Amino acid sequence: MLNDAEIKSLALTQNLITPFNPDLLQPASYDLTLGSTVLTIPKEVPQQFVVGKDQVTYVEHVIGADDAWLLPPRGFALFETAETILLPNDTAGKFEGKSSLGRIGLMTHITAGFIDPGFRGVLTLELYNAGPMSLALRPGIRIGQVSFHRLSSPVLRPYGHPDLGSHYQDSDHVQGGKFD
Questions:
Q1: How much is the average pLDDT of 113-138?
Q2: Are 145 and 113 within 8 A, CB to CB?
Q3: Which residue segments constitute the domains of the chain, with CATH numbers given?
């Protein structure tokens, strides 16, 4: 696992995190902040969804700099990080939520916390409110943290390799699920 000095060095020399803010650097991770674009699934959806066959239509919302997104109890939405991550071919990442947010019921990823070597783009976060009260989420809040793990050697086929069908490479905004 990379420490703060290694994260800072990679951020400044190889654009590991853009923009990089030294105030968000932790001892062995980097705090990521909430972006301003949100995707939701409309309430008028079929009662059954066939994974691998059906496609979801999302509704996009943009939160103003001084506004907030209200996530009700049992509410779900996809958010983007404000930061872009660019992983070298010998480094993987792991996104985790902030414990203080978890303690009020906010889950920041349901299953997709792993970031493959070679990934480039913003992260899409799967936010779910498991708590009893609505949560007002503002762009720029610290939403989670990413840790970086150096591999013993570079991977043969990094994320984005043509053989892999990497759906989310070079994402510059929040992405809905892509099934094929």
A1: 96
A2: no
A3: 4-41+58-150 (2.70.40.10)
Record the tokens describing residue 6, joined without a space: 């290694």
CA atoms of 121 and 95, how far apart (whole Å): 14
**54-69 in b/e burial notation, b at 16+ Cβ within 10 A?**
eeeebeeeebeeeeeb
Secondary structure of the chain in HEC code, one letter for each residue? CCCHHHHHHHHHHHCCEECCCHHHECCCCEEEEEEEEEEECCCCCCCCCCCCCCCCCCEEEECCCCCCEEECCCCEEEEEEEEEEECCCCEEEEEEECHHHHCCCEECCCCCCEECCCCEEEEEEEEEECCCCCEEECCCCEEEEEEEEECCCCCCCCCCCCCCCCCCCCECCCCCCCCC
Q: pLDDT per residue over 26-76, tens digit each?
A: 999 999 999 999 999 887 766 666 666 667 788 999 999 899 999 999 999
Please list the active-site residues: 126
